[in-house]
Amino acid sequence: MNRLKVNLQKLQIAMANQAFSSKELSEKCGVSQVTITRITKGVQAARPQTIGKIAKALNVPVTEIIETE
C-alpha cells in the first residue's frame, strides 16, 4: 500500500495555525486519535486518503503537509 511521508514541521505549523491539538484534529477530520498521534510523532506514514482528510480539516493543500522530493 502506498503511504505518504508527512513533513512533521509543516504539519505542526498547520495545526498551530488552526489552534488544533491532536485530539481536536482527530475529531475534525474523522481519523482516530491514535493514528493522528502516530502521524504527528513521525511513527507512521499515512495513506493518501488520511492525508487528504487531515489537509481538509487544516484547510491547507495536501502538498503543504507532505514531503515532496
From TrEMBL:
<protein>
    <recommendedName>
        <fullName>HTH cro/C1-type domain-containing protein</fullName>
    </recommendedName>
</protein>
<dbReference type="InterPro" id="IPR001387">
    <property type="entry name" value="Cro/C1-type_HTH"/>
</dbReference>
<dbReference type="GO" id="GO:0003677">
    <property type="term" value="F:DNA binding"/>
</dbReference>
<dbReference type="Pfam" id="PF01381">
    <property type="entry name" value="HTH_3"/>
</dbReference>
<dbReference type="InterPro" id="IPR010982">
    <property type="entry name" value="Lambda_DNA-bd_dom_sf"/>
</dbReference>
<feature type="domain" description="HTH cro/C1-type">
    <location>
        <begin position="11"/>
        <end position="65"/>
    </location>
</feature>
